[in-house]
């Protein structure tokens, strides 16, 4: 890059994606080389970023009996699961499909917890047969069904009850889960009765208590308030002779997309452990982080297809869309957008960055000033969590490929998928 290279934009929250001589890099590899080799849209993950995020949790929990069950709904691509499982993680699943993929990752089935308000009988049987570590039960009705299914298989289901602490996580309403108004968990005031019932059912073995108040939490106060409410219940249960083995505090820790300053995992956990110690709790601690492990470990590479000056706005039309990156359309979420190569000659223009999908809601970034030209590549940042796992084939668009960068090498961990691949049809037009 010439000396007149413009100042590199920030890649928020992602020290593992950085500029060198005007080129955006991941672990020493130029992302433009990956875009050229694999085409776009393309998700690229940094293994070092993933392991660094996990290390913050592991530091915070050092010396305690704990299990970090990665919430695979955030991103369930096998190569990422294998990396986390090999680094010591269990998995938090929410469906039979996730169970199958979890087992393929090589995780110890005893390190799987099963969350979700609507587990089917079939999913319960599959999970019982696989020998998972714990069902996080969310209602009295689910307790009865699980008891029935376990007895039919001649087993006892290990259970934890998810309680709804009625604490406001102060996040987007669609991803807040710990308020009375939300569908999740058993109401705090009904929890004791639910535990009494669970303890009386022969097909269940009561192991723990579980709580998850929401996602993209950037403030430790609601997290710690929920913990206190859970600990009140743990003590009340002990007084009734129901002793628990573990406390599962769910996930929810936020990441920096723009300028958010969520608590660091190790510091938040130090506060959690202090509060457990203050109450004399030596229970095994389970956590279910998703976004905070993978969110800033991934970017989505995309090509500028057209620049379209409009009557009111300038549009930058890119080849990634709401089917690849649904968060802006769903939650008006912000993702930073930066060029893969800084262009000294392009003029900075304010754009609406949009995809090719036939909806006005198909925007990826609003009012973004970028110095780019048609054919340039961009990176949509903080795209490791809830992007690929929420991708769809809307408009019969294919699904992006995924690459994992580790050290100086890049491995294709998922092929690009065309919508008709699963139908086994020959491409009709010979492409
Ligand atoms: C029960 C449960 N556990 C864990 C998670 C993971 O949350 P996050 O990705 O915010 O860490 C979620 C999603 O919000 C969840 O519903
Ligand atoms: N899909 C949401 C997070 C959902 C959390 C799952 N309970 C997001 O992209 O922010």
TrEMBL record:
Alphabetical list of Pfam families matching this protein: Orn_Arg_deC_N (PF02784), Orn_DAP_Arg_deC (PF00278)
Modified residues (N6-(pyridoxal phosphate)lysine): 73
Pathway given in the UniProt record: Amino-acid biosynthesis; L-lysine biosynthesis via DAP pathway; L-lysine from DL-2,6-diaminopimelate: step 1/1
Top-tier EC class: lyase
Function (record text): Specifically catalyzes the decarboxylation of meso-diaminopimelate (meso-DAP) to L-lysine.
Quaternary context: Homodimer.
Protein name: Diaminopimelate decarboxylase
């Amino acid at each position: 890059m010439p000396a007149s290279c413009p100042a590199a934009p920030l890649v928020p929250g992602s020290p593992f994606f950085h500029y060198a001589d005007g080129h955006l890099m991941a672990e020493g590899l130029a992302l433009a080389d990956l875009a050229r080799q694999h085409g776009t849209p393309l998700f690229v993950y940094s293994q070092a970023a993933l392991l660094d995020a996990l290390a913050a949790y592991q530091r915070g929990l050092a010396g305690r009996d704990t299990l970090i069950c990665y919430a695979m709904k955030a991103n369930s691509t096998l190569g990422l699961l294998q990396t986390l499982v090999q680094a010591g993680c269990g998995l938090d699943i929410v469906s039979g499909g996730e169970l199958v993929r979890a087992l393929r990752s090589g995780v110890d089935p005893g390190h799987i917890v099963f969350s979700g308000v609507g587990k089917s009988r079939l999913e319960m049987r599959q999970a019982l047969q696989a020998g998972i570590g714990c069902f996080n039960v969310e209602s009295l009705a689910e307790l009865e069904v699980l008891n029935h299914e376990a007895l039919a298989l001649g087993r006892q289901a290990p259970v934890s009850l998810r309680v709804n602490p009625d604490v406001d996580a102060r996040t987007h309403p669609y991803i807040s889960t710990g308020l009375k108004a939300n569908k999740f968990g058993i109401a705090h005031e009904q929890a004791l009765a639910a535990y009494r019932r669970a303890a009386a059912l022969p097909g269940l073995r009561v192991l723990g208590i579980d709580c998850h108040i929401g996602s993209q939490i950037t403030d430790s106060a609601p997290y710690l308030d929920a913990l206190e409410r859970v600990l009140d219940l743990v003590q009340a249960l002990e007084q009734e002779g129901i002793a628990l083995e573990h406390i599962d505090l769910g996930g929810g820790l936020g990441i920096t997309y723009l300028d958010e300053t969520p608590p660091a995992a190790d510091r938040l956990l130090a506060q959690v452990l202090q509060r457990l110690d203050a109450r004399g709790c030596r229970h095994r601690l389970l956590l279910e982080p998703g976004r905070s492990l993978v969110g800033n470990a991934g970017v989505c590479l995309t090509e500028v297809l057209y620049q379209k000056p409009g009557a009111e706005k300038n549009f930058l039309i890119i080849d990634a869309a709401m089917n690849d990156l649904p968060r802006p359309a769903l939650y008006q979420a912000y993702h930073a957008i930066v060029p893969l190569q800084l262009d000294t000659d392009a003029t900075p223009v304010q754009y609406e960055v949009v995809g090719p999908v036939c909806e006005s809601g198909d925007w990826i970034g609003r009012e973004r000033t970028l110095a780019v030209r048609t054919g340039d590549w961009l990176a949509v940042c903080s795209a490791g969590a809830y992007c690929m796992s929420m991708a769809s084939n809307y408009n019969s668009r294919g699904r992006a490929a995924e690459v994992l960068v580790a050290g100086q090498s890049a491995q294709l961990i998922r092929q690009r998928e065309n919508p008709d691949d699963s139908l086994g049809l020959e491409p009709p037009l010979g492409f």
